[in-house]
Specification:
By secondary structure, the chain is mostly helical. About 65% of the residues lie in helices and about 0% in strands. The protein is globular and about 30 Å long.
Length: about 80
């Protein structure tokens, strides 16, 4: 995991429901692994987003959405057929 991913992970974990931290870690670790292997697809994003949203504290959703879009733009070059950024 690179430094940017570590920062993103910390940011997200601080904003998930207290009883969902471990579940969020697993979801993010799997996604980072696929991303770095070049196997993270648009379909993975579609599956990831509702799962992650369900783990977040409701009052943190807007803040997280903003950061996630910035993160996605930074890594869009790694996604095959990406329309992000």
């Amino acid at each position: 995991m690179n430094h940017g991913q570590e920062q993103f992970l910390s940011f997200i974990l601080e904003r998930v429901k207290d009883d969902k931290v471990e579940e969020a870690k697993v979801l993010l670790d799997e996604s980072f692994k696929k991303l770095m292997e070049g196997n993270f697809t648009q379909d993975d994003i579609v599956q990831f987003l509702p799962k992650m949203i369900a783990l977040l504290k409701p009052e943190k959703l807007s803040e997280v959405q903003t950061v996630v879009m910035q993160f996605a733009e930074n890594f869009s070059h790694l996604l095959p057929n990406s329309n992000i950024g």
